[in-house]
Amino acid sequence: MFADRAKIIIKSGSGGEGHVSFRREKYVPNGGPDGGDGGRGGDVVFEVEKGLNTLVDYRHKRKFRAQDGEQGGKRNCSGAAGADLILKVPEGTLIKDAASDKVIADMSGENTRQIILRGGRGGLGNQHFATSTMQIPKFSKPAGTGQEMEVKLELKVIADVGLIGFPNVGKSTFLSRVTNAKPKIANYHFTTIRPNLGVVDLEGKGFVIADIPGLIEGASEGVGLGHDFLRHVERTRMMIHILDASSIEGRDPVEDFYKINEELTNYNKELAQRPQVIAANKIDLLYDNKDEVIAKLKAEFEPQGIRVFPISGVTGEGIHELLYFVADKISTMEVKPIIFPQEYFPEEELINVDLPYTIEVEDNVYVVEGPKIDRLLGYTNLDSEKGFAFFQRFLKDSGILDELEEKGIEEGDTVKMYGLQFEYFK
């Protein structure tokens, strides 16, 4: 079974707890608090590994967890941060939320590394809570817990050209002739059960070609391995539709073409509208009626703007002309990588829950606290532009800014959220 899908559970590390301790030295009878902070938990990070072409590493292990942060220590010693969990995937892998099937990340193009779950914030030691009125704080701020979710991994092959057609029409033989790929070839259906990639080298006009496993009727409804195969067509810019011109298995090549395109349309209407060229294969098996068969195919498809090239994957006849036509076609097409946009944002989903918060005013300092704020600061990276933008949007959408203004906050006043402090500006 080919490994282009997997479902796994990932969890980021929890933060280390802040420490509660007091300075104890021989000649310092009234030493203050010196409990150190806990370390931040490790993130869950996905990275593209160029040498990988399957998700087989995730078929036999389902749970993956980043390291927890270490607890803080005495003498203001901070705990070490937990190690990030780096998960390697092939280029073209989609990461989806298993529950909603929404895209979290598309590991394609320039996106070769993405943090999916952030580790929990480390707890604050009691050194942070000493005040003029409370000089012996016997508590620390709890650490943030790690995030956990189930995700689906789907590999969608990245190639310029996809080979499509019914099983046993000669796609693998064609690929082995025009590239250095070594697909399994045999005279029975479904020899290919996973996509094979190859590079066609045409003196500077090379392109990547993928042998998509044979489709059958009902593939768009999941019959056979339909959905598993069809997903790999989605990233191709054009398709070579291979037909068995010899009808050696008793099928009509014209009827085959329309059946396959019907499955493409049912799966994704945009797929069937992408450029196609027909490779009328196995002409080496045609004898007396070769010209008649090719004329029939050209009469059917070329008025629709679909070129027909008679070829033989065995002898190589006609392949040269086909490849140069495809290369020229691709060179005139807009180079626009097919990237699936992010639909699901784990941080927002985990923060945007109905949790309470409070706003207290102390000497013109507006103190905002509560589980909602604690979770926000625990899961948001304010050092990044994206994280800070989300922080600002969160304050507005959650009604915190409106409530601050109702309490009389003015520009330049201080807002304090646990360890975070900033001046308020509209």
Characterization of this structure:
Pfam families: DUF1967 (PF09269), GTP1_OBG (PF01018), MMR_HSR1 (PF01926). Keywords: Cytoplasm, GTP-binding, Hydrolase, Magnesium, Metal-binding, Nucleotide-binding. The protein has a six-stranded mixed sheet, with helices on both faces. By secondary structure, it is an alpha/beta fold. A hairpin with a 2-residue loop joins β17 (about 415) and β18. Helices cover about 20% and strands about 20% of the residues. It has helices at about 170-180, 225-230, 255-265, 270, 290-300, 320-330, 345-350, 370-380, 385-395, 400-405, and strands spanning about 5-10, 45-50, 65, 85-90, 95, 105, 115, 150-155, 160-165, 195-200, 205-210, 240-245, 275-280, 310, 360, 365-370, 415, 420-425. It has three domains: about 1-155, Spo0b-associated Gtp-binding Protein, Chain: A; about 160-330, Rossmann fold (3-Layer(aba) Sandwich), CATH 3.40.50; about 345-425, GMP Synthetase, Chain A, domain 3 (2-Layer Sandwich), CATH 3.30.300.350.
The number of domains:
3
Name the CATH homologous superfamily of the largest domain: P-loop containing nucleotide triphosphate hydrolases
What do the pLDDT scores average to?
80
Broad CATH class of the largest domain: Alpha Beta
Rg result: 30 Å
Structural class: alpha/beta
Distance between the termini: 58 Å
The CATH architecture assignment of the largest domain turns out to be 3-Layer(aba) Sandwich
How much of the sequence lies in strands comes to 15-25%
Largest sheet: 6 strands, mixed
Estimate the global geometry from the Cα principal axes: elongated
What is the count of β-strands?
18
Give me the number of helical elements: 10
Helix content: 10-25%
